[in-house]
Design a protein that fits this description.
The chain is of the alpha+beta class and about 800 residues long. The protein has five domains: about 1-20 and about 160-165 and about 270-290 and about 515-640, no CATH class; about 40-150, no CATH class; about 165-265, no CATH class; about 295-515, Jelly Rolls (Sandwich); about 665-820, no CATH class. Strands 8, 9, 10, 11, 12, 13, 14, 15, 16, 17, 18, 19, 20 and 21 form a 14-stranded antiparallel sheet that branches.
């Protein structure tokens, strides 16, 4: 057993300070005092009227554990005086209850307490998820211990020793693939996944070049379990490009992969490899720490359950805001929710906890680990919200394109939390990748936004206020608005609410701690190093449903008395299921020497600060990992990298146009710039959301359809309508034009130029070779005005009709090729 000490924990991103090492008798570590969490909203326990607590520790036990577990719905139905032994929630004497409880808890490692393991096994768990009960019980015990549970010391446990097993590997020759799997891929996927497709989409596994297709397909085929291949899952589970019936198509492809696998012999691990011992993910040491700062935590969702329709609040602060999943929401591996067009929402009754505890301090921090699905979402799309509808809220964290938006209702903002604080457009801080986002508020700094441990750089220009205007009947929701009309797409890995402002140091600490279920995998290398109980250790977690994250390897001996000799380590690679992984070998350039001078007893020696992802092949329970080395101690294996496959000859495509069309986002932005009407205009935004799917999605002019032009025309009409209807905007844009005149007199030659000149200047410009001839466009627009302003017959040519003609002229201009072509 090995205890990781502070500097090692810091190197691994677990930055909580450990002030004392546990002594042999199991004493508690010293702790710096922090602001206490305010009283709970409500206590589920029995009312206690017995003798007072004899010591401060007994009182902490009562407040943090006994009060939470003594109700009949939890432990109070059995473990009371004259009830079932042990009587750890007896109500007649808190001191006797305290004595009965001590053998059932481990205040140094709360997660190992008997009370925790019992509910984790399902014993009288008061929730639908035993793991959620265990997490909450752990928090209560840690609070009693006055011990940040996440700062617990991590003890490295030596795993059982086993050599890497034999597995099936892909043959070098692509012939078997060509005879079994490739015909289906080429027949049904070539319209996209080839480099000769009209719109090529990588990877090119349907290429007519069999070697190129084979290389692209390997990562998507499981030879050991064909039915779990990525190819099969895309058809069976995601209904992607099925050619007849998705289920039968998936079975057909699975059978083809099985036929390929049947033709491959099982091969043993190559004898020339210098390899470590092997182990699976769950044979590693669980990194139960994490080093997070959570002293003022009042709500927390880690999404560990993985099944069902409830995401549990495991903060231990009552009442728990358990979230109900609805709509297009799914669980993802490694803890998290995938949001597409759904939400996870708490009840208004339980959400009231946020109102009570946040208004009590006038401060807050909302923390989340998120993965936005794209950078095109607007609304702002709701990531986290405590609100009553699309126009009323207490707070919201949202997304608009590359920006995070922070809306907060105070005495100096409106009921919708406006004006929003947003990250800077030019910084593009929001990316479609895993990000740690924190929004805070206090009476000195107002609203602040942090992304990946760093301040966003934006300043809140709204005067600080209070939360007196907050509504306690709102509901807490993730991934959407409570009205279900402003969805956000992406993954949410963790959300936490604190009723104090996290400092920049605490935010950096929580970012460094990372997210998800993490393990330390100890790869035994004693055979090659000659150092007793020596291991190369990597922090490994399930990154998502498809990959593992390997990070920050270090060398350590679990024998405190081991003699550290000089050991060179070069060219480390990750192996999975009997072979080296085909991708993610970021450590292959490693060149480090273990020396007594660099090695610290009890902490080891860092090898790299890098990380990489490796694809899941079977499952987190079944995938077996090991390490290989080009040199480890005196053992060597010379690795000669294979030449990359030759690129396929480019297909002789039809001649491509030198010009294209703007896509939906570019059209919207261009019309906004030309007219001066902002994209945030309510009428424009509503039209854009309605027409977005009908507007061009790609810039290829060959794909431009009549339906695209209809949508462009409608957008042009809407922008021009908003331009003319806004009296101040139109007066500035069409300076000098008299909109009060009837149509038959308003458009004399000099006056109509007040309409045409600004439109042509902003749309076409002057003497631009790639734009239409200005005179020709002007003549067409003049003809249009002549036709529309002909007031003969029964036509009503009042001032309102004058505005209509201006709108039509504007729409004809900005809805033309002058805007569309690029």
């Amino acid at each position: 057993m090995r205890l990781l000490f502070p500097s090692r924990i810091q190197q691994l991103g677990l930055t909580a300070l450990l002030t004392l090492v546990l002594n042999a008798c199991g004493g508690s570590a010293a702790k710096v005092e922090q602001n206490p969490t305010p009283p709970l909203v409500s206590q589920p326990g029995e009312t206690y009227s017995g003798p007072p607590a004899n010591t401060d520790d007994v009182q902490r036990y009562k407040l943090n554990l006994w009060d939470n577990i003594s109700s009949a719905e939890r432990c109070g139905a059995c473990h009371v005086e004259r009830g079932q032994s042990p009587e750890f929630v007896r109500a007649d004497d808190i001191n006797l209850a305290y004595s009965a409880t001590n053998p059932l808890v481990n205040l140094d490692e709360p997660e190992t307490s008997t009370l925790v393991t019992k509910v984790a096994g399902g014993h009288n768990c008061w929730l639908a998820s035993p793991s959620a009960c265990a997490d909450i019980m752990t928090t209560w015990i840690a609070n009693w211990a006055d011990n940040d549970v996440s700062a617990n010391k991590i003890q490295l446990e030596a795993p059982a020793q086993k050599s890497p097993g034999a597995n099936k590997n892909f043959p070098e020759d692509s012939g078997l693939f060509a005879a079994t799997v490739h015909p289906l891929l080429e027949t049904y996927c070539a319209s996209c996944h080839t480099n000769s497709a009209t719109i090529p989409i990588s990877p090119y596994f349907a290429s007519s070049d069999i070697d190129e297709a084979y290389q692209a397909s390997k990562a998507r085929i499981s030879l050991d379990t064909p039915e779990s291949s990525r190819f099969v899952g895309r058809l069976r589970d995601e209904f992607h490009n099925c050619w007849s019936n998705c289920s039968s198509d998936a079975s057909e492809l699975s059978a083809a992969i099985q036929a390929m696998a049947d033709g491959i012999d099982i091969t043993e691990l190559a004898p020339e490899l210098v390899n470590s011992q092997a182990l699976t993910l769950f044979e590693g040491t669980l990194a139960t720490g994490g080093g997070r700062f959570e002293n003022d935590l009042i709500a927390k969702w880690e999404f560990k359950t993985g099944t069902g329709t409830t995401a549990f609040d495991t903060s231990g602060v009552e009442p728990a805001i358990d979230l109900t999943l609805s709509g297009d929401v799914s669980w993802i591996g490694g803890w998290g929710l995938q949001m597409v067009n759904g939400k996870a929402q708490g009840s208004t009754a339980s959400s009231k906890k946020l109102h009570t505890l946040l208004t009590a301090t006038g401060e807050m921090s909302i923390e989340a680990w998120v993965v936005p699905a794209n950078v095109t979402q607007e609304g702002p799309a709701r990531i986290i919200s405590y609100s009553g509808g699309s126009q009323t809220r207490n707070f919201t964290l949202g997304q608009t394109l590359y920006n995070y938006d922070y809306l907060l209702r105070t005495s100096n903002t409106d009921a919708n939390g406006e004006t929003a604080l947003s990250t800077a457009d030019a910084d593009e801080l929001l990316q479609s990748s895993l990000q740690h986002v924190v929004i805070t508020y206090d009476q000195i700094n107002g609203r602040q936004i942090y992304v990946n441990g760093m301040h966003s750089g934006v300043t809140d220009n709204v005067e600080v206020g209070n939360f007196n205007e907050w509504n306690d009947t709102y509901a807490f929701v993730l991934g959407n608005e409570v009205s279900s009309d402003i969805p956000w797409a992406g993954s949410i890995r963790m959300v936490a609410v604190h009723n104090r402002t996290l400092t920049s140091e605490q935010i950096a600490q929580n970012f460094a701690a990372g997210i998800g279920q993490k393990f330390f995998l100890l790869f035994n290398v004693t055979q090659h190093t000659g150092i007793a109980q020596s291991y190369v250790v990597l922090e490994v977690s399930q990154f998502d449903s498809y990959s593992y994250l390997f990070a920050e390897p270090f060398f350590i001996s679990l024998d405190d008395n081991a003699t550290i000799s000089t050991v060179p380590i070069q060219g480390m690679r990750i192996g999975i299921n009997g072979r080296e992984a085909t991708t993610g070998q970021v450590f292959q350039n490693l060149d480090v020497t273990i020396t007594d001078g660099d090695y610290i007893t009890g902490e080891g020696q860092a090898l790299s600060s890098l990380g990489t992802t490796v694809a899941i092949e079977k499952s987190p329970e079944a995938d077996e990992f090991f390490l290989t080395f080009e040199q480890l101690g005196s053992a060597t294996n010379v690795v000669i990298e294979a030449d990359p496959p030759a690129a396929a000859l480019p297909a002789d495509l039809e001649p491509q146009s030198d010009i294209g069309v703007r896509n939906f986002a570019e059209i919207n932005a261009s019309m906004s710039v030309v007219t001066g009407v902002p994209t945030s205009n309510a009428a424009v935004k509503a039209s854009f959301e309605k027409l977005k799917q009908q507007l061009p999605s790609v810039t290829n002019i060959d794909s431009y359809l009549a339906s695209n032009q209809m949508a462009v025309t409608q957008m042009a009409i809407k922008y021009c309508d908003q331009l003319v209807e806004n009296s101040s905007l139109r007066a500035s844009y069409f300076s000098g034009f008299d909109f009060t005149q009837p149509a038959n007199t308003a458009f004399i030659e000099q006056d109509r130029n007040l309409i045409l000149t600004p439109l042509l200047d902003k749309t076409i410009g002057n003497n631009i070779a790639t734009q239409p001839q200005r005179d020709e466009v002007s003549n067409e627009l003049n003809n249009l005005i002549d036709t529309l302003s002909d007031c003969s017959g029964d036509k009503v040519c009042n001032a309102t009709y004058t505005q209509t003609i201006v709108k039509a002229t504007c729409a004809a201009t900005i809805g033309s090729a002058a805007i569309l072509i690029q």
